[in-house]
Design goal:
It contains 11 helices and 10 strands. The chain is an alpha/beta fold.
Length: 307
């Protein structure tokens, strides 16, 4: 009887170990798309936000598979990755990031994605200092504006950085990456000319924005952001900040506030109603749009609103 009990106990332990191994294997098993990518020999890369992912896809062409981590409709400032999103990053070789506090949530993803290298795409970018009144008091080390991808000139630098990284990771296709870069940078030059032409006929150059994402764009195209509703996304402005925005809107005869699809407008509505403002939507991360289409859309929106 004791021998039978021992055998039964041993069998139970074996069953438990087998079940555990099956669960672990399932949890770490890459999805079918990941397996297909590995089988085709493509370099698997990822980017924190859609504009950078699109640039990487333009440069990498047929030799890469690109994932974007930030889901459509989410804000990079408030996003928190889910366990499933972390698991989906298994097998990624490179992760392109913005840095400067915007996408720090990449780190836990990379820590769990074996072998991935994180590369901030800010090399040779002249960072814009945040004015004191645009700094988040809870982030005292955040002294520069992280939204540097929002000009075609900076996009050219970013695309060069992406090309350099892809060429180093996959030297067999570096000539193709260089050719794709030349073609894409020509498109970015055309984009810059398009934006300049669109904004050449506007009658007002002062803007109030929901979120302070547009400093680089404003500096590049001669616009002036005279006020921002939320210095930190999701944090309502103080009564004093609201009063200052009222004054700025009246001083510069501002008729429109520019919001973003990733931000809640609940706290914005009373301010809009008080001043009878129009609300127009700018998109800094290109929901369902590539980078060039996103920037054209934003230029068109600003042009129509400020005429």
């Amino acid at each position: 009887m004791k021998k039978n009990s021992w055998l039964i106990g041993l069998a139970a332990v074996v069953v438990l170990i087998a079940a555990y191994l099956i669960i672990i294997n399932f949890a770490h098993k890459p999805n079918d798309l990941s397996q297909a990518t590995a089988e085709t020999g493509k370099l698997r890369i990822a980017a924190s936000i859609n504009p950078i992912a699109d640039m990487a896809a333009q440069i990498g062409g047929q030799f890469v598979k690109v994932d974007v981590i930030l889901p459509p409709g989410a804000s990079p400032h408030t996003f928190e990755p889910t366990p499933q999103q972390i698991r989906n990053m298994q097998g990624v070789a490179l992760v392109f990031a913005i840095g400067h506090g915007l996408d720090d949530w990449i780190q836990p993803i990379v820590d769990n994605a074996s072998g991935a290298t994180v590369l901030a795409v800010d090399k040779d970018i002249k960072m814009r200092e945040l004015p004191l009144n645009q700094r988040d008091e809870d982030e005292p080390d955040q002294t520069v504006d992280p939204h540097y991808w929002l000009t075609p000139a900076n996009a050219k630098t970013i695309s060069q950085n992406i090309t350099d990284a892809l060429s180093q990771a996959d030297p067999a296709h570096k000539d193709a990456y260089a050719s794709n870069l030349a073609s894409y940078q020509k498109q970015l030059d055309d984009l810059d000319a398009y934006i300049k032409n669109k904004l050449s006929g506007i009658t007002s150059r002062e803007m109030i924005t929901h979120h302070n994402a547009w400093g680089y764009f404003a500096d590049a195209y001669g616009l002036q952001i005279v006020g921002t509703f939320e210095i930190s996304p999701g944090r309502e402005p103080t009564p004093q900040q609201i009063a200052d925005l009222h004054s700025k809107a009246k001083e510069f005869n501002v008729k429109t506030i520019f919001s973003e699809p990733q931000l809640s407008d609940a706290s914005l509505r009373p301010f809009v109603q008080d001043l009878s403002l129009n609300v127009k939507i700018l998109d800094p991360v290109g929901t369902n749009m590539g980078y060039i289409d996103m920037m054209r859309y934003n230029a068109d929106t600003i042009s129509k609103a400020l005429r």
